[in-house]
From TrEMBL:
Listed InterPro entries: YjbR-like_sf, YjbR/MT2646/Rv2570-like
Name of this chain's protein: MmcQ/YjbR family DNA-binding protein
TM stretches of this protein: none
GO MF, one annotated term: DNA binding
Amino acid sequence: MAVDRNALKKWQSVREFALGLPGAAEEFPWGESVAKVNKKVFVFLGVTDGSHPMGVTVKLKDEAAHAHALSCPGAEPAGYGLGRAGWVSVPLQERGAPAVELLCDWVEESYRTVAPKRLAAQLDAR
């Protein structure tokens, strides 16, 4: 599976945004990239080696954002039972995939659901 340049650019922008959030760190459990805050995952970034379609998985508590994310081409509730907790997998290679700005909004919302209040407050101060 070839890596789609546009999807890769989006992925890189989203990863950079996620890792720029207060207290965020990248780890590689299961061989895929995740961004964590306070030892909790707030975005699954997957892999970029072409072995799987590129995408991001975020936790969206807000009903409108959750419904919007699920309406994206190819999006689905995350596997392993995470979908029931509000996690949505959004592919980046589909035609009509969300813009970077929207993806970053979702990453920020996901971050806020797991980040300690003091770190989320640093975001509001920016």
